[in-house]
Design a protein that fits this description.
This protein is of the alpha/beta class. Helix content is about 40%, strand content about 15%. It has helices at about 10-15, 45-55, 65-85, 100-115, 135-145, 160-165, 190-200, 220, 245-250, 285-305, 305-325, 350-360, 375-380, 395-410, and strands at about 25, 30, 30-35, 95-100, 120-125, 145-150, 170-180, 205, 225-230, 240-245, 265, 270-275, 330, 340-345, 365, 365-370, 385-390. The chain is globular and about 70 Å long. The termini are far apart. Bound molecules: 4'-deoxy-4'-aminopyridoxal-5'-phosphate.
């Protein structure tokens, strides 16, 4: 890729050419990939970096004195610096590599929350959270006799901030909120929520899975305590992710996973642990994946996350207007600030049936509860269809999608 000069209009086709899979045909039709919130496609730069690691540098990290060991360690650790820059973290030592957001949140649940939770305590989330930001809290709350509570949202899909703040009582030991909802696309006002939490001494965890591919992330400006994201939605390999946490939290947290790489000294009776972040990285990490993640960050940075966000916003407005013109279509999530995610239902068509027929047209989108049961309950539906866009998607694809909905709908009668 040669990133376009920022002065030129954004040309998705130029970037699209970097993604081999997007050239595929599916069911005899050109693929239209609208399932980016689920996982994004990978540019050849990421595929090449991962392959080059295995072909030329493969060795374990932080163990061997031989040349390959040193190369692998420096390639792996260089990505920690990139992640710190990407998130504007004050220190590389605050970047913990994980297998994804799910592992990151579980780490905070077991290492930070569980030792602090007492009977009657609460963890506050919102109705729009992904199960990854609900279930880990339930598991540790059950052990401690605490409970998970949720702040409500409006029918448009916006968090009711006053209700969130009202629930920040002394019982609450931690709050967790999605930066961007994976179903509604809503961008939550994390900075305001973090300020309210801080004023009450309550740490805030932000689930940034759906934000990292679309928005600039600045953990210092946001003022949160923990920020988790996943590499595979940011055009990187699966099984990669990051937990950022304030240094003082990481220092005070006991490790959750034990094993090699995370210790200082081991005796049969007891062990002492390495400093963060290594204290939280037991065992052999996904080294090639992390190297690929570094290539994904380089790729996104070369285009510019602001330019990506601006183009996607334009595409979102175009797709929203187009979808709204479909008779009998119900759109879920009309927040004033939202990322390029469109959840909807079409009158008279089951979500799965429509998704199956659209797949026959080469269109990949998700149908289901999107790992957000409480949100589905709020709207009183078992499932929605979700089209989630990336910077390599185009208006032509949106047009083809709308035309396909009209065609397949006739089949459903
Ligand atoms: N939170 C949100 C908002 C998500 O969209 C996802 C992925 N669908 C996750 C958490 C979990 O991410 P992962 O499966 O990569 O751990």
């Amino acid at each position: 890729m040669n990133a376009q000069p920022a002065t030129l209009p954004f040309d998705p086709l130029r970037y699209r050419a970097d993604f081999p899979l997007l050239a595929r045909r599916v069911n005899g039709k050109p693929l239209i990939y609208f399932d980016n919130a689920n996982t994004a496609q990978k540019p050849r730069q990421v595929i090449d970096a991962t392959e080059a690691f295995y072909r030329e540098h493969n060795a374990n990290v932080a163990r061997a004195v031989h040349a390959l060991g040193a190369e692998a360690t420096s390639a792996f650790e260089a990505v920690r610096d990139k992640c710190a820059r990407f998130m504007h973290a004050p220190s590389r030592d605050e970047i913990v590599f994980t297998s994804g957001t799910t592992q990151a949140i579980n780490t905070v649940a077991y290492s930070y929350a569980l030792p602090r939770l007492q009977v009657g305590d609460e963890i506050l989330v919102t109705t729009m959270e992904h199960h990854a930001n609900i279930v880990p809290w339930q598991l540790v709350c059950e052990r401690a006799g605490a409970r998970v509570v949720a702040a409500p949202i409006t029918p448009q899909g916006e968090l009711i901030v006053e209700e969130f703040i009202k629930r920040l009582t002394p019982r609450v030991k931690l709050a967790g909120v999605a930066h961007v909802s994976n179903v509604l696309g809503t961008i939550n006002p994390v900075r305001d929520l973090a300020r309210a939490c801080r004023a009450r001494g309550i740490p805030l965890l932000v689930d940034g899975s759906q934000a990292a591919p679309h928005l600039p992330i600045d953990v210092q400006a946001l003022g949160c305590d923990f920020y988790a994201w996943t590499g595979h939605k940011l055009f990187g390999p699966t099984g990669t992710g990051v937990l950022w946490a304030r240094r003082e939290h990481l220092a005070a947290m006991p490790p959750f996973f034990g094993g090699g790489e995370m210790i200082r000294e081991v005796r049969i009776e007891r062990s002492t642990f390495a400093d963060p972040p290594h204290k939280f990285e037991a065992g052999t990490p996904n080294i090639a994946g992390v190297v690929g993640l570094g290539a994904a960050l380089d790729y996104v940075e070369a285009i510019g996350i602001e330019r990506i966000g601006a183009y996607e916003h334009d595409l979102l407005e175009y797709a929203t207007a187009a979808l709204k013109s479909v008779p009998g279509l119900r759109l879920f999530g009309e927040a004033a600030r939202k990322a390029a995610v469109l959840s909807f239902l079409v009158e008279g068509a089951h979500a799965h049936d429509l998704a199956t027929l659209l797949d026959q047209e080469g269109i990949a989108l998700r149908s289901g509860h999107h790992c957000a049961h409480p949100l589905m309950q709020f709207y009183g539906v078992p499932a929605t269809l979700r089209a989630s866009l990336a910077f390599y998607n185009t208006r032509d694809e949106v047009d083809a999608f709308i035309a396909a909905i009209a065609r397949v709908r006739k089949l459903l009668g």
